[in-house]
Amino acid sequence: MKRWLWLLLIPLALGLVRLRFDVEVLNLLPASLPVVQGLKLFQQHFASAEELIVTLESDSPESTEASARSLAEHLRSKTNLIASTMWQSPWNEHPEQAAELAAAVWLNQPPEAFAALATRLTGTNVQATLADARERLAVSFSPGEVAQLSFDPYGFTRLPLPDVSAAGFGPGQDFFSSADGKFRLVTVKAGTPLPGYRECADWLAAVRAEIAGWQRARGSQEKLGFTGRTVFVTEISSGMEHDMKESIVLTAAVIAVLFWLAHRRWRPMLWLLALLALILASTLALGGLFFGAINVVSLGFAGILLGLAVDYGVVHYQEAMASPDATVPEIRRAIGPSIFWAAVTTISAFLVLNLGGLPGLGQLGSLVALGVALSALVMLFLFLPPLFRDRQKRRDERVAAGLWPPPAREAAPAPSAALSVARRNFVLAASTMLFFGAAAVLSFGLPKLDRSPDPLRPKGSMAYATLDAIKSRLGPAREPLWIIASGREEGEVARQLERAEAVLARAKSGNTISGYLLPTMLWPHPEHQAQNRATASRLMTERERLATAALAAGFNTNSVMLANTLFDTWGAALARTNVFWPTNDMSRWILARMAARTDEGWLAAGFVFANDTTNTNAGPTPSWAAELGTAGMIVSGWELLGNSLLHAVSERMWLVIAPMVALILLSLWLAFRRSTEILLSLAVLAVSGLCLLAVMRIAGWSWNLLNLMALPLMLGTGVDYSIFMQLALRRHQGDLAGAHHSVGRALLLCGGTAVAGFGSLALSTNAGMASLGAVCAVGIGWNMLISVFLLP
Question: Does the predicted model carry a pTM greater than 0.70?
């Protein structure tokens, strides 16, 4: 036996070595859904993984601007910690770098547009262009236009770019500052990669310490906020540790208290807790062995497993206390069938979560199923032997003395008819009150269905609160949807963007959307670049003449600096044979938000802004989104996620419920083989389900994409109580007092620990897991009470 135990340690050790924790929420979701694919691509390629966003807000725009500049300068000096810091748009901080991007945009224009520019800058048209610039300078009252014409008399910066105000941004709006200047952003990029949650937490703590020191030294009173991937990861990982510790400690404490109240014995209580710790650690190791990475939400299995695993030990111990003359093997044979069928239904209930379409919940279900199987074996074979070592010895002594088997006892008198009638009246009254009370509550309506993605969010998240503040102060009123176009090379992506432009233009003209913003003009167009090479080469021959003409027309030397940079950029592009991309800091900053290179090719991201009256999270897929999807593009966004997930989960719900119902019916038949007892167990499930719906309606709880998975869990775990109770009644030939003494008390303790296990999830920092735990705790609590007090 010891040899086998040592062999078991090998896979457990391997599992602990492989074990790591995954804090990416999107890994909880089905990878086959386009909206999930889009979110993952956007997070991976267009949202900087090593970037922190700091918000500053005060009552004075001057104070906020000065603080933002000061903070950026302070953080830029910490080169060992921070790679770069920005407090204003790069074209405001380094306007001279805009020329390279302008040159690239002209090079990507259709040949006729670039030829029109060349025509305006050749021959006698040069003088007409300069005269027009002087005239506009003389009559303009716009400081922006005066500055632009002074440095760009030839109009190189009058690019055919999209109108961002149509996409939801106001004219002149800065992406780093609110319109009133009282709210500003500072972006901070880590100096080293942050691959895991520990690195994110350590780096964020160091940056926040630097910011706190800067704030103290400067006496700054601005209100600060923090968001970005590093903050989300840190919040989720700290929530993971909090949830796991809290659920384990809370559930273990409830188990200890309930066991002590029921039995008043230290030794079995401590031995039970030790075995539960062993089961929990072994399950975690097996999870590492089978899965490698365990998602933080799946760690909610710990409290659930403790609440379920203790059932087998408690029932086993109660049977031993109710049968003082039985040996451990006899107790095991008596209680074994009940534990076996209860474990089968519970394991099945959690395994079918893998069919629900949510990988995160599927992993949680697999972990609990592993733990329950391990618990049944451990409690059957390891729990009782150390506690009742003397029973076999006493049996042998009694057999040797001729005192075993004991003489047959007289049958206990049957319960009186009056007592039987009283019990039946109580059951009838209680059942009637429960049924009609629940029906009366539900007559006002069933619990609502929440289609939003909010159940995936952490509760009380500073990162989400800061992100919402950014959206309300800087961006459009609603979060945009994302379009991701892909292709093996740049030209394929350019054609995808042109198709998207046509589809979205029709949607905007039909008032289906309020606007869109695509990188069509900024994206390299290989065919246009190839055709524009000759025009660019011809324009470069005019370089000296254009500079001379501008100086002669009264413009200073600064007016030709922009033109010289454009000509230098075109010269660099002509020297290359492949597709030209601009490379300076400002260009890279802009392109990083709309272009990405992958192993499979290229990705481009655009934005679509829905109308304020359009609920993209509740209705069917918009026609424009379906058309783009048919063309091979991905339309995604958090607003689409909830409805898409709920639709996917609803479509697969029959795959979860049908096998669970079939397995429950099979288990009940194999356990009882009598229709009366099967129908009674099903009636318990039905009445407890009605009571759960009534409680949800009274408490204002809603169904969501995570707590819908409570249905198979309540079916699989709730039926255990009726199996235990009815098999106990069989063993005691219908003696209610005997059944309650041997199993009823144990089921109350088991139900309390199961409710505590699921209830500990209600304190989870993840909103969806909290709702799942609360619904399961209430449903299982009702099932236990009805099975113990009404079913017999």
Answer: yes
